[in-house]
Amino acid sequence: MKFHFYKYCLALALIVSAISCSQIEFERQDVNTWYDAKSDTLAVELSYHNLTAVAKEENSWTNDGFKSKPAGPDLEAGEKVLRRIAAGERFFMIAISFMEVDLENQPELIAEDSTPEEIRAAQFVDGVSMDTARVFINKENQLCAVQQLSVRNLSDGLALMNAGLRNEFYQDYVESSVRAEDDPLDEATIALFLTDVENGYDWVRWTEAGLSFSIPASPELLAKLFLDGLAAIGNGSEKGLPQFLAGFRSMAEVLGPITGLTVIDNHVTITFGADADGKLSFHFPNKWDNPYESENDSGNANALRDHILQSDLKLPTSWKRE
Q1: Distance between CA atoms of 45 and 319, rounded to whole angstroms?
Q2: The dihedral of CA 272, 276, 277, 282: what is its sign?
Q3: Residue 21, exposed/middle/buried by CB under 10 A (0-12, 13-18, 19+)?
Q4: Which of 39, 186, 218, 311 is 20 to 30 A from 178 in CA distance terms?
Q5: How far apart are CA 145 and CA 305, in angstroms?
Q6: How far, rounded to the nearest angstrom, does the alpha carbon of residue 7 sit from its chain's CA centroid?
Q7: Calpha distance 63→82 (Å, rounded)
């Protein structure tokens, strides 16, 4: 099977090659990472808190057209997902419940006419291993899960990803003659991007000090983004202060690991710094816009837990980091 190398590299931005909608949800996810430069390996620990089943949808035709409504939690589909996690498959969710990553059921990525870069990309994904996986009941009697995986040759994966991002930008702004009407980039920023492309600049980097994103931006664009941000705050507060503050707290929780924000040589660099032990942690609430609305879309917060306890899937009542 022949695939487009650079499109594939964009997927490496999340170290994934397949994303689909998940059949389970979680209240919160904690992501802990440790990067070892000597072995060039990123250790990742994914913790899912209070897992519930996604609601089934009942579809029907009405006088107002086609409509769908929740019809109770899909317990069988939720159980299938948990069995895959418990079996240690290379299958996980990241950041938000509906982003499901499946590295197990992939088509053959290397063909006879594959380029060396395409082969490297496929080998990088093959190097992602699931080292530990548990589904368990926590002290609060909630259904939880934890996965520990290793991403080997991280620098090679980042090099491929950055090359793909540079090429994608070149295709969109040089080879393509069509520009979106709502394109937020001004001409000065586009020129900065193209200079980075020509010089092979890496916009995403991961070292033992942490993860950093360095994006070019003109002074005019930065000023516009600042003013747009103030306007968004004003619009958000008009819709209701409690909802606005709830959304702000959710975003603050996600961006908590930021340890540096600098503007040098027309590049905005955001750094997520690791602690003294080399650990970099992220925390993702499931409800990004307003975590206090709609307590549980599945209709029953305990339904999946009770269903699993009645199955033949044996669950420990705790988990200890290995």
Answers
A1: 13
A2: negative
A3: exposed
A4: 218
A5: 12
A6: 17
A7: 39
Task: Evaluate whether residue 318 is within a structural domain.
Answer: no
Range of the domain at 130: 5-309
Answer yes or no: are the C-beta atoms of 203 and 217 closer than 8 Å. Answer: no
The helix or strand, by DSSP H or E, that contains position 309, with its residue range, turns out to be helix 303-309
Strands 128-137 and 24-36: unpaired
Residue 322 placed within a domain: no
- 319 lies in some domain: no
Give yes or no for a contact between 299 and 119, defined as CB atoms under 8 angstroms apart. Answer: no
Q: Higher-confidence residue: 124 or 178?
A: 124
Q: What is the rounded distance in angstroms from the CA atom of residue 106 to the CA atom of residue 17?
A: 8
How far apart, in whole angstroms, are the C-alpha atoms of residue 42 and residue 210? 11
Helix, strand, coil content of the chain in percent (nearest 5): 35, 30, 35
| Domains contained in the chain, number | 1
Distances (CA, A) of 157 to 108, 168, 205, 235: 19, 16, 11, 40
Cβ 172 vs Cβ 205: under 8 Å: no
Q: Which residues 6+ apart lie within 8 Å of 72 measured at CB?
A: 55, 56, 298, 299, 300, 303
**Neighbour tally for 66: CB within 10 Å:** 8
Q: Are 91 and 103 in contact (CB under 8 A)?
A: yes
Rg of the chain in Å (alpha carbons): 22
203: left (phi over 0), alpha (psi -120 to 50) or beta: alpha
**Range of lowest pLDDT (13-27, 44-58, 61-75, 111-125):** 13-27
Name the pTM for this structure.
Answer: 0.79
Q: What is the mean pLDDT of the chain?
A: 79
**Choice among 21-35, 168-182, 270-284, 302-316 with the minimum mean pLDDT:** 168-182
For residue 77, being part of any structural domain is answered with: yes
Angle, CA 303 vertex, CA 301 and CA 309 arms, to 5°: 125
